[in-house]
Write a sequence for this structure.
């Protein structure tokens, strides 16, 4: 009590301490995916299909590369933008995937796809700015905008009973003088929608005309089921001067969700600013993780192809087993690894997900977590071991008939 610090602490404790937090932090909501995951993760006999990851651990050749690098002493601070060999490996990988070359100077290594989203929001959004977001969408995106004081404006996609589509007119009508960016996730989590080239071109033309940024979340780019090398990307059509930032991740393709490493592709003119933001957020990604992801890029194609084949089998099993239940309404996902389905007669998906968890011990994410348009739906991640998925679908079939 003698010192100012002590009395400040006592005063804070005696009042509503929440009121002392930043308004931006206070308004952030718990993720509806994490809520149910936390409620049920310890259940006996649980089959967890609620989170966006497969059941396979990171393949040994990537683990070995990380261990070898760590043993070789790569445990020090390193380049903020990413080590040059990884940026070059990403440049080669992306240039092969897309219609236009992606120079290494456009590539920035980040501590996950999530961090790439947060850095992009920090880069583009300030208090009161708006970001138009196509929904239903992964909840972290709108919360990242809010943490930066910005206002996410969700534009729901149309669902016609068989699939999801974006009406570019609706998207563009949501733009106001305060809009700074359009957030487009394709292939989409949770819907599995893949945005076609024509829609991307319409959006890009509009963004050019109005000086808007496009944040293209393409973390599921390779997870498409039509045999293409990748989903159509804004990087196929953007010029170096376009205000396009791709956010991306090593999590999904190479079974590396727990590692926390991703990347951004952005105009090189932003380089110093992005580097500064990385410096003041995390000061970069561990060197040995970067060495391992360079190996994932150059030697991981067989593994990625196996992952796609496993996801396709999982998707087809969901379509066959759940799709034939009269009450289940869903499209066939064209990309990503989620089956997003509504159940006729059920309107509160949070309530339904908790009920199904109790009755079947199958963990699903409620569509209420994914914003406007998703409320009636449940999300099931089908990147799972085939027998486990089969077992989960059997339990769900019984409960939903
Ligand atoms: C659409 C979307 N973007 C970004 C991410 C971030 O992935 P990570 O932070 O694991 O790299 C996810 C993860 O689920 C996602 O679904």
């Amino acid at each position: 009590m003698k010192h100012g610090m002590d009395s400040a602490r006592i005063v804070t404790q005696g009042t509503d301490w929440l009121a002392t937090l930043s308004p931006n932090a206070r308004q952030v909501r718990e993720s509806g995916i994490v809520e149910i995951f936390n409620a049920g993760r310890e259940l006996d006999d649980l089959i967890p299909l609620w989170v966006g990851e497969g059941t396979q651990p990171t393949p040994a050749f990537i683990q070995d590369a990380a261990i070898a690098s760590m043993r070789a002493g790569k445990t020090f601070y390193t380049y903020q933008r990413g080590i040059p060999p990884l940026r070059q490996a990403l440049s080669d990988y992306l240039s092969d995937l897309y219609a236009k070359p992606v120079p290494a100077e456009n590539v920035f290594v980040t501590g996950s796809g999530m961090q790439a989203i947060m850095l992009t929001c920090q880069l583009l959004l300030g208090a009161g700015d708006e970001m138009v977001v196509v929904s239903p969408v992964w909840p972290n995106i709108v919360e990242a905008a809010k943490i930066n004081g910005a206002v996410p404006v969700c534009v729901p996609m149309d669902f016609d009973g068989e699939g999801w589509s974006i009406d570019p007119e609706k998207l563009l009508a949501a733009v106001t003088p305060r809009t700074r960016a359009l957030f487009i996730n394709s292939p989409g989590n949770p819907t599995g929608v893949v945005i076609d080239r024509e829609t991307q071109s319409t959006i890009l033309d509009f963004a050019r005309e109005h000086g808007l940024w496009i944040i293209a979340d393409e973390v599921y780019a390779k997870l498409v089921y039509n045999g293409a090398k990748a989903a159509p990307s804004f990087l196929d059509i953007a010029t170096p001067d376009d205000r396009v930032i791709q956010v991306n991740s090593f999590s999904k393709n190479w079974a590396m969700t727990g590692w926390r490493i991703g990347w951004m592709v952005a105009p090189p003119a932003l380089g110093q600013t992005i580097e500064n933001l990385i410096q003041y957020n995390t000061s970069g990604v561990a060197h040995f993780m970067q060495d391992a992801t360079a190996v994932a890029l150059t030697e991981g194609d067989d593994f990625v192809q196996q992952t796609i084949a496993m996801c396709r089998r999982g998707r087809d099993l969901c379509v066959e087993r759940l799709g034939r239940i009269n009450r289940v309404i869903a499209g066939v996902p064209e990309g990503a690894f989620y089956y997003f389905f509504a159940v006729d007669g059920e309107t509160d998906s949070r309530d339904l997900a908790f009920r199904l968890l109790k009755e079947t011990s199958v963990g699903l994410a409620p569509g209420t977590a994914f914003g406007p348009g998703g409320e009636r739906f449940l999300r099931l991640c089908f990147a799972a071991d085939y027998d486990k998925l089969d077992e989960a679908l059997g339990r769900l079939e019984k409960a939903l008939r």
